[in-house]
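ok trying again, last paste got cut off:
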Amino acid sequence: MALVPYDENLLPALSKLHQASAEFTLANHKIRLSQDWNRLGVAAVVWDAAVVLCMFLEMGKVDLKGKRVIELGAGTGLVGIVAALLGANVTITDRQPALEFLTANVRENVPPGQQEAVRVSELTWGENLHLYPSGSFDLVLGADIVYLEETFPALLQTLEHLSSENTVVLLSCRIRYERDERFLMELRQRFSVEEVYYDSERDIHIYRAVKNRTNTELGSPLCGR
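nice, full thing came through this time. structure:
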């Protein structure tokens, strides 16, 4: 789903989104991702929230070795790729139109010996959730997926479905509008939510959410407070 087109000359800081590729050094690997704004819009470029979430994962505050991880709205796949390079078994998801592009980035950047630990799969929030066993993941990742208000109910439904009381959800986002705050309010009705990191240079917040449990202590050993 593409954003309203803009004039690159008026917003030079965003011109990088129109570049054919983006390169990073993360998880001790050089990563080169294809981008294709013209064909796939926001789904095919790297946003700051993804970079910040990858940096947070690199800090080692999240136990990724052998963990079952799913990334929602993966776009270029950067976050899921980094999680796999750090030792997780990762399911990287997005809507059908982005899958071919996403698969190519994964194939290009995950070493052959780790390819079996990564699966690219279609997931449109709120649809066909039975294909993903309820509560079967240790960690759910999302970078810059909180921005379209009409998707919030389906996103919340999906997060609830994928999470057990031991699942950690990490959402990396920029709080742009009141609707983003409303999403966090809705999330707090179902999950215990706290901000665990803030990148002031990029104005990116990372929130940790754990599904509410009854009459037991909130928390999970996966991600330290």
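cool. Confidence is low (pLDDT under 50) at residues 1-13, 215-221. The first helix runs from residue 37 to 40.
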